[in-house]
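User: Quick sanity check before I run a bigger batch. Here is a single chain. Can you write out its predicted 3D structure?
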Amino acid sequence: MSLKPYFDRLKIEAGCDEAGRGCLAGPVVAAAVILPKNFKHPLLTDSKMLSENQRESLVPMIKETALTYAIGIVDHLEIDKINILNASFLAMHRAVQGLNQVPEWLLIDGNRFNPYPNIPHTCVVKGDSKYFSIAAASILAKTYRDELMANYHQEFPVYGWDKNKGYPTKFHRNAILEQGPCHLHRKSFKLLSDEQLVLFDAQSLR
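Assistant: Done. Predicted structure follows.
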């Protein structure tokens, strides 16, 4: 299915998406992008469907073509305070707030959103594979966050964030089990699997 260039031709629309919602560490990052109404690109689609090299190659094109774009970040401490769902919405709000042009409508990836003041929105399930603006936002959010996690990896190489980006891989969780969490981990998240928790309890009793 080909992506659509707009939801309403007469409205200035910003596509919004986030990255890092399911991670155990680091921030959640969102992007908001306003593209020209006539925008088309043969490769641009949901960031999860693209390779890392493909995503990186699309970033300059998106930034050069977009009428405006912005990034919003909510760190691990805020996530623990307000929960990850609200943090995802807040990151998107911050991205919209950073735009150089005020959109008339927001296209939100997903099925829920906290309304942004004075701007109506439409939630689109799997919107990053349906609208170019949401796909562009997904790529900017994903690549920005990946770069952050690669930088954090230099400080905490034991967790393998250069590869897993903070997601709950077996390697990441084993490192948490063996080394303990660091200050960038989300303390409100379940950092260990059920099997690891049993192992941890057994080791504690020795």
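The first helix runs from residue 52 to 65.

User: Great, the batch can go ahead then.
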